[in-house]
Amino acid sequence: DAPFTPIGSRQEPFTGQFDGNGHVIRGLVIEAEQETPEIKVSEQTVNGELHSYTYHDVSRTQFIVASQKTQPVWAGLFGYCGGEYAVETPYRGMISNLGIEDARMTISNASSLSAGFIAGRATYLAGCYVKDSTITVSGYTRGEADKAPVYIHAGGLIGDADLVDSCYTQNINVTIANFDELDTTPYNFLIGGLVGD
User: Fold this and answer.
1) What is the pTM of this model?
2) Cβ contacts of residue 1 below 8 Å, gap of 6+?
3) Could you read off the pLDDT of 60-118 as tens digits, one per residue?
4) DSSP label at 58?
5) Across the chain, where does the E strand assignment appear?
6) Count of helix runs (H) and strand runs (E) in the chain
7) In this predicted model, what pLDDT tens digit does every residue of 29-41 receive, in sequence order?
8) What would the pLDDT profile of 161-191 be if each residue is shown by its tens digit?
9) Angstrom distance (rounded) from CA 96 to CA 165
10) Is 166 left (phi over 0), alpha (psi -120 to 50) or beta?
C-alpha cells in the first residue's frame, strides 16, 4: 500500500533491458508532489526609478522575466529510461513483457510531468499492458507573474515514448484537473489512454 518510488531518474536513468517474463504487478500505488516552482520576477529601471512588475506592457517598457526552476517529474514503475533518441540507442532502456493491473497514480502540484504506469519516459516498450488503472494529475496555483509553460504528458502505458510495439491498455482513466486559466501561460497537454507523447 505504500507509494512506490520509480526506477530511474533523468539524472540517473535506467539504461538496461528489463524483461518482465509475462509477470503482472497488481495494486501499484505511485504518489508524487512536484515542488512549487521558484519564480523570478525582474526589477527594471524605468525613468530613473526601480520598479518590480507582474505584467507585460510594451507601451510603457514595463515587463517581467519569469523562469520556472522546478525539475520535471518522471512517474511510473520506471521513471526515466534510456537515452534521448531511440535512433541512437534503440535498445537502451527497453522494457518488455510486463503487465500492470489495478494501479493508481496521483500527481499533485504538477507543472512539468511525464507519467505512465510502465514508465514516465522510455526508449522502447514491447509486449506490455496496463488494465483497470487510474491516473490523476492536478496543477498548482499559479500567480499572474508565472508565465512559464506547463508540460503534462500522461498515458495509461507511458507518458513519453520513442518506440511502442505490441502493447495495449484496457479500462484506463486519466484525469487532469485544477489548472488555472491564464491567457498568458502556454499549456501543453498531451494525454492518452495508451501514450501521452
Assistant:
1) 0.76
2) 27, 29
3) 333 333 444 456 788 999 999 886 554 555 567 889 999 999 999 998 887 788 999 99
4) G
5) 17-26, 29-33, 43-46, 49-52, 73-75, 78-80, 94-101, 104-110, 112-115, 119-126, 129-139, 150-155, 158-165, 168-177, 187-192
6) 0, 15
7) 998 877 655 544 4
8) 888 999 999 999 998 887 766 555 667 888 8
9) 9
10) left
